[in-house]
Design brief:
This protein has 374 residues and is mainly alpha-helical. It is built from 15 helices and seven strands. The strands form three sheets. Strands 1-2-3 form a three-stranded antiparallel sheet, with helices on one face. A hairpin with a 4-residue loop joins β6 and β7.
Length: 374
């Protein structure tokens, strides 16, 4: 009976609140998940936009595009590349002189050309203004663009002749060049030369910058002579004697093949205490033709090998390397005489005896007679 009548207990306020709170919690969690998902989406979207933007920007040229001209330029300007200048220095020099539109353009052109680092030489160049950097680099690699003063010293020439040449290429007066030449210690002349430049100015072709000083020219010639002596393993104590003999060979020999033979004549005569009697030594202090007169052979001078036994006091000209080598390594012969029988071709006859020599001399006299004298 009790169960039948028993009234169902009503829902309490506490249980209703609990269910409401649970519903609210579930809604809150859904909102949080939605917010997190939205935030993640925004981040992903932002990252994607950033990557896309950077990619697009990479396709664009930078704001500071390297400036460069497009043509071969116009006008002319002198550009100096100093020894030790690196690529950046050269680039700035070109930019400052209006040759290239920017240093970076030349640096890039040099970077792209493997010859640039090896072939750009110090010196003076004439270049147009407003050149494309690539063309400016090409101008540096063109030898004709370089301004040089070139001097060629011929074998067998004397100091006075050489100093005149140095004066002509440097623009200094002969008196100024002679004054420079007098300070042989400053020029680096070895002590073996005893203060005389004769024979120590090596014959060759030299190139210099336009502002070269005579001292630099003469110093390089002396340095080259020392280099040649050392290259041929000639000891310093033999330098002056070797150059003296070599200068005689240079003035007397008609060909490279004759040089060791002329050297042997010199050595054989010296060994026998015979006078050399070389016409070239007379012509060193007395100007004249190929042959010498009896009166000239009697002219007093320490260089007169007709009067004095032994070698002259020093070289009588600048010898080349072939004569230097022959002077130090003469041929092994018994020759005591020689004469050039044809001055045009340089044909020279050698002899061990005086009769043979006189017969050769007759050939020379005949040549002179056939060619209007000597």
């Amino acid at each position: 009976m009790t169960d039948l009548f028993e009234i169902e207990a009503p829902t309490t306020t506490t249980s209703l609140e609990l269910r409401r709170l649970q519903r609210d919690a579930r809604r809150h969690q859904r909102r949080i998940r939605t917010l997190i998902a939205s935030a993640i989406g925004l981040v992903v979207l932002a990252l994607g936009a950033s990557i896309a933007w950077n990619f697009v920007q990479a396709l664009k040229p930078p704001a500071d595009v390297v400036k460069d001209y497009t043509g071969y330029g116009q006008g002319q300007v002198q550009v100096i590349v100093n020894p030790g200048d690196d690529g950046a220095t050269i680039a700035n020099t070109l930019y400052e002189n209006g040759v290239v539109a920017s240093p970076q353009a030349f640096i890039q052109a040099a970077y792209d050309n493997p010859d640039a680092a090896l072939k750009i030489q110090p010196g003076y160049y004439i270049l147009p203004r407003e050149m494309k950097a690539e063309y400016a680099l090409g101008a540096f690699l063109d030898r004709d663009r370089k301004i040089e003063r070139t001097i060629t010293i011929i074998e067998g020439k004397t100091v006075s002749w050489i100093l005149d040449k140095v004066s002509s290429i440097t623009g200094y007066s002969i008196e100024e060049v002679q004054s420079v030449a007098a300070d042989t210690e400053a020029l680096g002349l070895p002590p073996e030369a005893d203060g005389s430049l004769e024979g120590w100015l090596f014959p060759s072709t030299y190139s210099f910058n336009p502002d070269v000083h005579p001292a630099d020219v003469l110093a390089l010639m002396i340095e080259t002579t020392v280099t040649v002596l050392e290259r041929n393993d000639i000891p310093p104590e033999a330098w002056q004697r070797t150059l003296t003999i070599a200068s005689l060979i240079e003035r007397e020999a008609g060909s490279d093949a004759d040089r060791p033979l002329v050297s042997s004549v010199i050595q054989n005569r010296l060994a026998r205490d015979m006078r050399l009697e070389f016409c070239s030594t007379i012509r060193y202090f007395l100007p004249g033709g190929l042959s010498v007169t009896t009166a000239e052979t009697q002219t007093e001078s320490p260089y007169n090998t007709y009067l004095h036994t032994g070698l002259p006091p020093g070289p009588i000209a600048s010898p080349g390397e072939a004569s230097i080598k022959a002077a130090y390594e003469p041929a092994d012969t018994s020759y005591l005489f020689f004469v050039t029988v044809n001055p045009v071709t340089g044909e020279t006859r050698f002899a061990a005896t005086l009769p043979e020599h006189n017969a050769n001399k007759a050939l020379f006299k005949q040549w002179c007679s056939d060619n209007g004298g000597c």
